Amino acid sequence: MPAEHLTAISIQTAIITVSTTRTEKTDLSGQIIRDAFTAADIPIVSMQIVKDDISAIRTAVLSALRIANCIVVNGGTGLTHDDCTIEAVAPLFHKTMDGFGELFRIKSYEQVKNAVILSRATAGITNGCAIFCIPGSPKAVKLATEEIIVPEIRHIITHAAQ
């Protein structure tokens, strides 16, 4: 891509796992995200687990916005009664990245076929920060992080910071 689309910008990543059952020891999805960013030499400045609760999720994202310019929220993006990540985070977006959810679902189709319609994965920009809301399953996390987010994050933040 053209050089003007990439700048030498520092990426600081916060990882938020939404779950009522995971702990630091059992949060495989959070670890997959950490490993993908670490392998790309992108620092992780915060990792936390919050319950499936709009207020708890929004508070965690707002707190992460103070220290990170890339936030990856995993879990709580499905259709069950307690899946509320999208409701908590989407109102914070100044701009949405519709292509993220579209591309995630295209790539996910190979893994889960028509069940891809149950995913509400989305992303947006807030105050120069990219926020990604992805499913919490390890396969979905690996796909979203390794195939989409990490390869494009510098490009995204370059544009978001302008």
Descriptive notes:
By secondary structure, this protein is of the alpha/beta class. The protein contains five helices and six strands. The protein has a six-stranded mixed beta sheet, with helices on both faces. It is globular. The chain starts with 12 loop residues before the first strand and ends with a helix.
What's the total count of β strands?
6
- Tell me the β content: 15-25%
Mean model confidence by pLDDT: 95
Q: Shape, please? A: globular
Low-confidence stretches: none
Structural class: alpha/beta
Task: Write down the secondary-structure element order.
Answer: EHEHEHEHEEH
Question: Helix count, per DSSP?
Answer: 5
- Biggest sheet strand line-up: 2-1-3-6-5-4
Q: Report the major sheet.
A: 6 strands, mixed
How much helical structure, as a percent, in the residues?
Answer: 40-55%
Cα end-to-end separation: 17 Å
Spatial extent as radius of gyration: 14 Å
What's the gist of this structure?
The chain has 162 residues and is α/β, with parallel strands linked by helices. 41% of the residues lie in helices and 19% in strands. The chain is globular, with a radius of gyration of 14 Å.
Question: Which structural traits does this protein have?
Answer:
162 residues, alpha/beta, six-stranded mixed sheet, 5 helices, globular
